[in-house]
Give the backbone structure.
Amino acid sequence: MKKINKINDLTIEDLDHIIEEKIIELLGDTDSGLAIKEEFKAELERRLKNLSKKISHAEALKRFV
């Protein structure tokens, strides 16, 4: 992270990053040590193999924005 000398130098992204780091420091990574269920893995792999439903970011913007 960049060196910040004054609060006025903070961007929204900097503040978001600081808050996220502090939450993880205080609470720990809540996902740490969790296992992924086999059913979830299988469904994810199935969806990733189905190329017909994938669209580019540009196409998504055209359709939904």
Notes: The chain has a mean pLDDT of 85.
